[in-house]
């Protein structure tokens, strides 16, 4: 069974992690980032880690999302943690479609 969770977040002015996911599902999560700003774009990238300290880019996940637009993708990783890094000083709505055993954790 799948579950959808949506979390309002604020992208900082300088690139930083704003959300972490424990990657415990057997099916990769579908992640949607919506830019709620009417005027500013936001830069995002999904990263992966086993220890939560050293992060590497998930291939193909770097994006710029225009005002009032959204971007969704399946993020495939064999690492224990996934994290959303963002910059642009804009409000976001992040939705995660996942199996029930996955855990989402705002920073």
Structural domain count: 1
What's the total count of β strands? 10
Low-confidence stretches: none
What is the helix content? under 10%
Terminal CA distance reads 26 Å
Radius of gyration: 13 Å
Shape: globular
Count of discrete alpha- or pi-helical segments spanning 4 or more residues? 0
- Fraction in beta strands: over 45%
Main beta sheet, described?
6 strands, antiparallel
Q: Could you name the CATH topology?
A: Jelly Rolls
CATH class identity: Mainly Beta
**Mean pLDDT across every amino acid position:** 89
Report on the structure:
- The protein has 107 residues and is an all-beta fold.
- 0% of the residues lie in helices and 56% in strands.
- The chain has no helices and ten strands.
- The strands form two sheets. Strands 2, 4, 5, 6, 8 and 10 form a six-stranded antiparallel β-sheet that branches. A four-stranded antiparallel β-sheet has the order 1-9-3-7, with no helix packed on it.
- The chain is globular and about 40 Å long.
- The model has no long low-confidence stretch (mean pLDDT 89).
Q: Any descriptors?
A:
mainly beta, Jelly Rolls, six-stranded antiparallel β-sheet, 10 strands, 56% strand, globular
Structure summary:
By secondary structure, the protein is mainly β. It contains no helices and 10 strands.
Write the layout of secondary structure elements.
Elements: E1 2-10, E2 16-22, E3 30-35, E4 42-49, E5 56-57, E6 63-65, E7 70-74, E8 81-87, E9 91-99, E10 103-106
Antiparallel strand pairs: 1-9, 2-8, 2-10, 3-7, 3-9, 4-5, 4-6, 4-8
